[in-house]
Amino acid sequence: xxxxxxxxxxxxxxxxxxxxxxxxxxxxxxxxxxxxxxxxxxxxxxxxxxxxxxxxxxxxxxxxxxxxxxxxxxxxxxxxxxxxxxxxxxxxxxxxxxxxxxxxxxxxxxxxxxxxxxxxxxxxxxxxxxxxxxxxxxxxxxxxxxxxxxxxxxxxxxxxxxxxxxxxxxxxxxxxxxxxxxxxxxxxxxxxxxxxxxxxxxxxxxxxxxxxxxxxxxxxxxxxxxxxxxxxxxxxxxxxxxxxxxxxxxxxxxxxxxxxxxxxxxxxxxxxxxxxxxxxxxxxxxxxxxxxxxxxxxxxxxxxxxxxxxxxxxx
Length: 315
Hints:
It is a single chain. With 315 residues, the protein is an alpha/beta fold. Helices cover 31% and strands 24% of the residues. It has helices at residues 2-19, 62-70, 78-84, 100-105, 118-128, 203-206, 210-223, 251-264, 267-270, 286-297, and strands spanning 24-30, 42-47, 53-56, 86-90, 112-117, 149-154, 160-161, 168-175, 181-189, 192-197, 227-233, 274-278, 303-305, 313-314. Strands 6-5-4-3-2-1-14 form a seven-stranded mixed β-sheet. Strands 7-8-9-10-11-12-13 form a seven-stranded mixed β-sheet, covered by helices on one side. A hairpin with a 5-residue loop joins strand 8 (168-175) and strand 9. Helix 7 (210-223) crosses helix 8 (251-264) and helix 8 packs parallel to helix 10. It starts with a helix and ends with a strand. The model is unreliable at 1-19 (pLDDT under 50).
């Protein structure tokens, strides 16, 4: 009898553990949207159990690795992790708070790809990796070409495999002060997917359907419980005037977009669904104000996550 009970207990615990197993590991290297140059948008993503990461945006890299090491999220030194574990960068758009860490650490980095829409890669070629601004660590552009980073242009909706990982990525265009483009990345493995949005304005402000199209595209993944989380920016509090949002969201517009998403899934499907709030701008007390307002606007019952630099998240 005791043996039968033991076997039952063992398989019960094993089944609970298996159901709770994570699919992705996310390490935020930077979570803010400005002012604090040591903590700007950058998220490392790997399949759970893998040490091969891609970096979604790269506003802060080395400082984020230092914080992660102090918090025990990584054990390697910062230079070793940078060279050995980050296998490529997916850049949503060319603004400095999303690329500065990549640029500044380029002399010490290892060879790897930069994946982005062609318009974004052009920003590196024309503005950053030039003699006057830095040095050309890219694979194209102004001579001398150092070939540290290989440019890989992304085609919207076309899926690619991120080199040296088991991750597949699709790019979707976003509007960030129309006609300037930003990008969302749908990251997938055999067990699920994550959606990361770079900077974006609301469709109603941008006079666009980019977000609506994106929500329609990923809705089946939510309904099938394949999408594990959405990373989305909320940069300003509701007090920010619509004509001063500069291609960003506030809590009211974020909630508006979540309701559009719910129209393609169902309200029930979004209850408890993880949404990571990124890119809060830390001017004065605005970060906390944004958090309070997002919580108040969360009428759909989403599971809201406010990421911390250097603290690992599992999905």
